Task: inverse folding
């Protein structure tokens, strides 16, 4: 049950042990900001979430959660009702009420891959103009090395009132963000101020009281820690995809290789699952930004450049397999697609492999029918009526020439293969997420192509 990761006795006991519940502002109510603000309120703080989108703010006041994230809505509503979670479009209102200001603002990649800091720096400028007393500015956004210095300079240009800037990167997994926020593996804090360190330590005391380590370092090291962690995981995923592709060449089974590798505690089992590439809001953006930051210092991240190139090809690796199956021509073939989100348990489609596959398949003349109960509306904003959408996984298969699985939603794990065969024109599955075991699929009569394993014909 999702309740386990926030309805725990240790968290309530820790809340009682907190010496000072704080007023905290969260500027930006995107994915990171809203989860961070809601969970800080769950720990007993009073939180003011600031966003310039008036409609979004009014909806949140009514209890409407603007993003899909398992477990979020329940604690969101509870903390609104408990008068611990508030929403406003007025930065000054939050500054007047709060001494700690979290910046959870977008840092989208520019055309050259660099992180766009315009939102962060604009809000920093506004803070400098509006603050009337000491503040701790906590940068929660993923930002390049040196951003804390730029924020400090921007605020200093507008005020002589003392303040401190802290780097406190987030390590949230979409689909598990509430769990990660309420049960962090570690807390990284970059600060050169003892006063700011003590304030941040107070906020995270409910976690440190239960043994969660808080790691203090300088601001630049903290900023790089986030980029280094995400880039390493992207490399790990991509390496496993390379191994999977090689397995197919030599007749090895990537599932067995993965288990053998993962049992080595120096490697671990996580992020070793092969598939059609990584996506989402973090890994692609952070890899690009770190490559660009390296170039600015005349440093070439050769591993990251290779990772990007391999991942780009991996995303659409099954399109050539589909073409091969149909003798090189997929014009007017009806392809069913299960899953549109970049991963399960989110509605996020940023850098999703599904989008690359849809674009390429349409370019080659195929017709696409797709099903994703959560991410459909977001995909409609991109492709509109260029593809067809269905309300369940089986109606998606009507008269389909083949099925392409792009997202590992749980509902796809144990389908009715007999019903699938009755619905489809051709019994062919191209599985980009290795949803089925070879034993599970072997006697169903389906042609089955997955990643790094033998093909069932």
Result:
């Amino acid at each position: 049950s999702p309740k386990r990761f926030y309805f725990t006795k240790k968290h309530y006991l820790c809340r009682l042990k907190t010496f000072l519940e704080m007023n905290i502002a969260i500027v930006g109510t995107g994915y990171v900001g809203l989860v961070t603000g809601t969970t800080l309120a769950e720990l007993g703080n009073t939180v003011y979430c600031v966003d310039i989108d008036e409609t979004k703010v009014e909806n949140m006041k009514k209890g409407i959660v603007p993003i899909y994230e398992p477990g979020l809505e329940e604690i969101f509503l509870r903390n609104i009702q408990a008068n611990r979670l508030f929403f406003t479009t007025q930065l000054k209102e939050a500054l007047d009420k709060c001494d700690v200001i979290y910046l959870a603002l977008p840092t989208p990649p520019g055309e050259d891959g660099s992180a766009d800091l315009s939102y962060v720096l604009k809000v920093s400028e506004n803070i400098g103009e509006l603050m009337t007393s000491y503040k701790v500015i906590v940068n929660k956004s993923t930002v390049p090395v040196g951003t804390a210095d730029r924020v400090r300079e921007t605020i200093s240009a507008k005020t002589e009132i003392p303040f401190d800037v802290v780097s406190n990167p987030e390590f949230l997994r979409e689909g598990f963000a509430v769990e990660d926020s309420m049960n962090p593996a570690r807390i990284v804090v970059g600060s050169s101020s003892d006063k700011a360190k003590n304030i941040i330590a107070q906020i995270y005391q409910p976690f440190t009281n239960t043994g969660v380590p808080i790691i203090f370092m300088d601001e630049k090291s903290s900023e790089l820690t986030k980029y280094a962690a995400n880039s390493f995981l992207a490399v790990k995923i991509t390496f496993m995809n390379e191994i999977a592709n090689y397995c197919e060449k030599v007749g090895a089974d990537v599932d067995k290789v993965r288990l053998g590798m993962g049992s080595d505690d120096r490697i671990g089992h996580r992020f070793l699952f092969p598939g059609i590439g990584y996506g989402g809001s973090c890994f692609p953006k952070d890899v690009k930004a770190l490559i660009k930051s390296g170039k600015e210092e005349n440093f070439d991240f050769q591993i990251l450049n290779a990772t990007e190139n391999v991942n780009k090809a991996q995303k659409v690796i099954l399109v050539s397999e589909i073409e091969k199956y149909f003798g090189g021509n997929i014009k007017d073939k009806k392809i069913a697609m299960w899953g549109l989100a970049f991963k399960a348990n989110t509605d996020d489609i940023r850098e999703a492999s599904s989008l690359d596959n849809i674009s390429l398949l349409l370019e080659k003349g195929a017709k696409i029918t797709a099903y994703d109960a959560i991410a459909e509306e977001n995909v409609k904003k991109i492709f509109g009526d260029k593809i067809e959408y269905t309300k369940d996984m089986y109606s998606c298969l009507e008269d389909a020439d083949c099925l392409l699985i792009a997202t590992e939603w749980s509902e796809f794990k144990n389908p009715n293969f007999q019903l699938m065969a009755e619905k489809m024109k051709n019994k062919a599955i191209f599985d980009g997420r290795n949803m089925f075991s070879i034993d599970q699929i072997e006697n169903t009569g389906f042609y089955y192509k997955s990643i790094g394993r033998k093909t069932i014909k």
About this structure: Residues 1-19 have pLDDT under 50 and may be disordered. The CA atoms of residues 190 and 218 lie 5 Å apart. The radius of gyration is 24 Å. The chain is about 45% helix and 15% strand.
